[in-house]
Design goal:
about 80 residues; single chain; two-stranded antiparallel ribbon; alpha+beta
Length: about 80
């Protein structure tokens, strides 16, 4: 059998999850703090896409805001 490689050699998974889920830091801030790529942080947190804010939508000639930010429906 071959040598078993550690899943998390630097121990960053627990720290990324703590900073993201408990402390509520942004992906960019976590990546900067731990000197990791934002892609790696998103992968650990299970965020496949960067969250988007409100955007404009043209519907029958009327301009209105569309807010598709996750979790915003309950706040209204």
């Amino acid at each position: 059998m071959g040598e078993v490689k550690p899943v998390d050699p630097f121990g960053n998974v627990a720290e990324v999850r703590r900073l993201g889920l408990v402390e509520g830091l942004s992906v960019r801030r976590i990546a900067r703090h731990l000197d990791m790529s934002r892609w790696a942080v998103r992968k650990i947190l299970g965020r496949h896409d960067a969250p988007r804010g409100p955007r404009l939508d043209l519907d029958e000639g009327n301009i209105h805001m569309v807010d598709d930010t996750p979790g915003r429906d309950e706040a209204r």
